[in-house]
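Progress note, project year one: complex with 3-acetylpyridine adenine dinucleotide.
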Amino acid sequence: MTPRVAIIGAGFGGLCMAIRLEQAGIRSYTIFEKAGSPGGTWRDNTYPGAGCDIPSHLYSYSFEKYGSWTRRYPGQREILGYLEHCTDKYGVRPKIRFDTEVTEAAFDGSRWQVTASGVTEAFDVLVVAVGQLNRPRLPDIPGMDDFAGASFHSARWDHSHDLTGRRVAVIGSGSSAAQLIPPVARQADRLEVFQRTPNWVIPKPDAVFGLPARLAFRFVPGLQRAYREYIYRYAEATLYPALARGWSEGLLRRRALRHLRKQVEDPELRARLTPDYPPGCKRVIIDSRFYPALNRPNVDVVTDKIVRITEKGVQTTEAVHEVDTIVYATGFRTTEFLTPMRVTGRGGVDLAERWAGGAEAYLGIATPGFPNMFLLYGPNTNLGHNSIIFMLECQVNHVMNCLPHLSGGRRLEVRQEVMDAWRRRLDEALEHMVWGDGCRSWYKTAEGRVTNNWPGSTMLYRRLTSMPPRAAYREV
Ligand code: N01
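Model obtained:
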């Protein structure tokens, strides 16, 4: 009997899982989606300027070549359009239960009891594809409720609020801030950017695909595949080594400092924008519009410590900055994987409690005590240098390889000794990467454990996830 599969989340991961099941002729699956449409983070992040810093042809499924990309790096709307297109083309949409949030998944000794919108249903297999960047993190600054103007998080943009002629504060200077600051600076009367830590920034060689290029991508056989392969290998060969401890100091630092010198003339501003930690420790920003926006006469970069939010604006150690609007570009709750959903495994073990010291899973996919549960974009599978869609496809491939062992009510659980060996291997590999080196980032827990990033090459990950899974698992 084919297992019944519950997929949680209709973003890039959950849709990929569903499409591969469809392609294999397995229709006994349901996708639970808390929102009213597919797209995950690309549905939620609609701030002005939202887009991707990975090229379009790589930031897409390998099996779905798309002839409609209009530029080298895709904008949010284009990516969302691609996901909508895939949802319909592969017949997945009727299988999505929209506006249905899973609050609990409990293993009852033989099956998974999935509770969504108050209704509980049994499934044989649970695939959790909720992503790492799905829950906005508002900062904990005193007085935030006192502010009399409009305020919102970058991932919950208030499109009814017109910024024209307003005094705006943007708190945060990560990838989201870097993308939204240029359009906001053009529209607002004044913009104050509150930067706690500067980021390393390298150029984004974006370009519109002219008609000849678009026609060529659409009609020349093999061109999309060859181009995708080229950009994939380029990122792997140049950016991945640059994230190794010591190495980032060469290539990345030189490239970023040259970009800063070229784009920012004022030496005082340049000094404020120069990081004092190794490049790559935090996610490197890939953008060519951010610095020019900061040069504008109506934009200020404030580096004084924020003390509180008042009724009128942002109070720092030096001054009160009166504003009409505050945008919190303060990131996501990235280390609290799967929360607020409650997940309990064999013997009622609570996953959140198990992961209290930091989330971990074999291949980022499976965890002992939680039979037939697979994670997509789980712990230690994020990348700082290449396409996450590549990683998702590897994970889905692994789940597909497990599925034949799960028919007829059988259950697989990753062996504890395999998990322990995996953790040791991971810790050793993480030692060689730059992420631990003197910076705060969303890649790690407050205690400094890197729970989000994959330290190996993506080629190694593909090899590990495509190995026959049986030896790593035991039947329970
Ligand atoms: O979030 P972030 P993001 N007071 O966590 C600051 C992906 N993404 O939404 O560095 C003052 O990076 C915080 O300061 P500090 C991409 O992977 C991709 O920008 O902690 N400031 C930081 O500056 C990215 O890495 C694309 O000192 C506070 C900022 O807020 C990830 O999403 C586009 C503060 C948060 O930066 C997250 O990016 C956009 C406080 N209390 C995003 N608390 C692509 O192009 C936080 N900050 C693919």
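The radius of gyration is 23 Å.
The first helix runs from residue 12 to 23.
No further modelling is planned for this target in the current period.
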